[in-house]
Design goal:
Layout: H1 2-9, H2 16-21, H3 32-44, H4 49-60, H5 62-84, H6 91-104, H7 116-123
Helix pairs in contact: 3-4, 3-5, 4-5, 6-7
Length: 128
């Protein structure tokens, strides 16, 4: 929602589906492929995080990489806070959340497992 609002504010068209299901090159987001790699590596704490970070810095600069890292951290901390406090997806929303995860291909990301109810619905093949 925020991305679509901000892209409208700067008169830009974004194809978020391409950023999620493709390489990101046709998403309209500058350097999307590198940003996606960095986001995934940071969330998984992959062994290649250091080299991914370095590649991103070389392409967009240190300040922009820090902005990306901060954005990743904020979203991750919101998930951790919700998971730690026991906040879970309301039963009425589990199937909708699973359908949305499939629609946006968010179910392909490791962090999709952070919501046990939605993950279970996805594993039950209810939404493929």
């Amino acid at each position: 929602m925020f991305l679509s609002s901000s892209s409208t504010a700067i008169n830009s068209k974004l194809d978020i589906t391409n950023a999620i299901t493709g390489s990101g090159t046709e998403s309209g987001v500058p350097d999307a492929a590198l940003l996606i790699d960095f986001t995934e590596s940071a969330n998984r704490l992959d062994a290649d995080l250091s080299s991914t970070r370095k590649a991103l810095i070389e392409k967009i600069g240190k300040s922009a990489m820090i902005d990306a890292a901060i954005t990743i951290s904020i979203f991750q901390s919101l998930n951790i806070a919700a998971d730690s406090s026991g906040i879970k997806v309301d039963d009425d929303w589990v199937n909708l959340a699973a359908e949305l995860a499939v629609l946006t291909a968010a179910n392909e990301y490791q962090t999709a497992k952070n919501s046990p109810q939605v993950d279970a619905a996805l594993r039950d093949n209810q939404h493929e």
